[in-house]
Amino acid sequence: MADKYIKNFVGGVFIQADSAEYIDNYNPATGKVYSFIPDSDETDVERAVQAAERAFPEWSSCGVQKRYKILTRIADIIEQNLDEYAKAESMDSGKPLSVAQKIDIPRAVSNFQFFATAILHFSSESHHMEGQAINYTLRQPIGVVGCISPWNLPLYLFSWKIAPALASGNCVVAKPSEITPMTAYLLGKACQEAGLPDGVLNIIHGYGKRAGQAIVEHPRIKAISFTGGTNTGKHLARTAAPMFKKLSLELGGKNPNIIFADCDFDEMMSTTMRSSFANNGQICLCGSRVYVERPLYEKFKNELVKRTRLLKVGDPFAEITDLGAVVSKPHFEKIQERIELAREEGGKVLCGGEVVELKGNLSGGYYLKPTVIEGLPPQCRTNQEEIFGPVVTITPFDTEEEAIRLANSTNYGLSATVWTKDIRRANRLGERLQAGIVWVNCWLLRDLRTPFGGVKNSGVGREGGLEALRFFTEPKNICIKY
Ligand code: NAD
Asked: Which residue among 141, 217, 343, 476 has the highest number of C-beta atoms inside a 10 angstrom radius?
């Protein structure tokens, strides 16, 4: 099992924070502290930036083949140790071990593989001015960049930023969430083993307000790729904008799941169970507002409630578990408050809405029954604000126009899902839904080449495929006169 005292990874070595202080790291399945995280501050970030600056000239000019080989090796090492990584992820986040084994860690492997090869195919434009000149665009790495990620998909999202940043020749100062630091710590070990040159990736642990803030404020970190809450994103933008940093912000969501009566019912039901409750609803893409065409509403409601009641909440390490613990005590309490608020707003809790009490070692864990609520108006807080837990609201609609209006009625715009067999209707909704990603008759079907990100309060910029490589490089036009 992983070490009890996590260390920062700076200049290729593991060191404690300058403060020598540690933060408690909880296992949400038991509610007990099981390891400790360095409480880093601006001194640690400065050390990391200096290590990154030393590494940059060599890494940015070593050629894509070398970067491809090292990133592929990192992917291989994670894959070879998949069980160790999955156990660490499950213990840190409370998610079922099976989910970490099948989704989180394999995706981290794919992220490194994908960007290792993507950089081999990355090209830039040229613009010919007939008889006069040729312009070509050089895409150069930015220098030292910052990557800050959240707790819900820890290594999955951490590597989703780090891999393209490294592939395109940058050196990185990265901070995982203080709530789920363990697989980021293991990643440092994989980088050492893979022969990543010292200082190319530096991993700083600690609180957002101290270590994270120091990364955002650092004058020599030129770009920040951030995934997290919308309020944190606003704060980051206020700090980074006057320093003219390049920013990519992947923020919260309150995604609509729009179900028309002509859909394939069985497929829609099984996918809707996932889009509602996968990872305890703690995925920014979960469809937490479910809108159902009225003729199908009662049938859908009964089936959703029946299936939700059958979901097994329990020990993340048990094979039969569907939903493990939610990530932390404050989050556990917040979700309960939000269910209470839904009741106050006039919502009817059709199932769930309660804490699950487990026995023995798990008695202090943070377990909640998955919850379905109906009868809430579109503008109430429950239907407007992100809960990020195993809670969905269901609402009937009568017309396509009404469905679009309801779907677009929040300040968020990350993703939307549409269930219909009518391809023309799917296209119409695809065009009019205010979202960065629209899934038709599917959910979370991801092709890593596609642009990923949100509109409105769900973020600025796109990750994924060439978008990420473009974000992590600076275009320079060179005009040569004939
Ligand atoms: P958060 O904003 O609290 O924290 C995210 C990261 O930012 C953490 O590493 C944290 O330590 C750091 N941070 C906090 N304050 C900071 C500061 N002042 N300066 C720099 N860094 C700081 O978010 P969270 O609770 O960890 O994650 C949940 C949120 O993330 C949800 O809103 C969810 O929708 C969102 N999310 C979005 C996407 C997406 O792709 N759009 C993906 C996953 C999660």
From this structure: 141
